[in-house]
Amino acid sequence: MAARLGGKISLIAPRRELERSYRSLIEEITALGEKPVPFPLGFDYQTFDELLKRLKDNSMGVGIPEGFVANSSFWLVRDNSEIVGVSNLRHELTSTLRVEGGHIGYGIRPSLRGQGFGVEILKRTLSRAKSLGLTKVLLTCGKSNIASAKAILANGGVLDSEAYYPPRNEVLQRYWIDLAATAT
């Protein structure tokens, strides 16, 4: 897969050396007026070391807000220098996450969408989910987000349901991926 995507691709924990690339990723998203996805992209990053500490604390369940669960953020990186995308893996589900959010959220740098990175970041994040001991993973996406639905289906997703979700004023789809049945 790495050859098709161009360059050496890896999924890593956030790290300081990629601050410039992280900032340019946020600038790209902001310039388009998009909502940052996954949600940790909305965290304050002006003091980068504080952002890195917050992300690490989140992965251990330290200092997370009421109603949230421990969650790990990962960066899909090309050639050890460019953040291509970001994923967030929730270690368990709440009743809210069962409706919207699921176990995994991910987003790809706008200028690199449509090149297979969505499929790749999800594949690699599913592997991390499996290593956490999860056996079945829930993903949700807006029905109009065809690229995300395709990435989920390419990784073994099975559509469970779809329903109108008033807070987002759209139809949400819910997919399950059985990690025992996938080659992660």
Describe this structure in words.
This protein is an alpha+beta fold and 184 residues long. The chain has 6 helices and 7 strands, in the order H-E-H-H-E-E-H-E-H-E-H-E-E. The protein has a 4-stranded antiparallel sheet with strand order 1-2-3-4, with helices on both faces. It has a 3-stranded antiparallel sheet with strand order 5-7-6, with helices on one face. Helix 5 crosses helix 6. The longest helix has 15 residues, at 117-131. The model has no long low-confidence stretch (mean pLDDT 94).
List keywords for this structure.
184 residues; alpha+beta; four-stranded antiparallel beta sheet; three-stranded antiparallel beta sheet; 6 helices; 7 strands; 32% helix
What's a concise summary of this model?
With 184 residues, the chain is of the alpha+beta class.
User: Major β-sheet, in short?
Assistant: 4 strands, antiparallel
The sequence of SSEs as H and E is: HEHHEEHEHEHEE
Low-confidence stretches: none
For the biggest β-sheet, the strand order reads: 1-2-3-4
Structural class: alpha+beta
**General shape:** globular
Mean pLDDT over the full residue set? 94
Q: Quick one: how many beta strands? A: 7
User: What Rg, in angstroms, do the CA atoms define?
Assistant: 16 Å
Helix segment tally:
6
The percent range for helix content is 25-40%
Relative strand content: 25-35%
Straight-line distance between termini: 13 Å
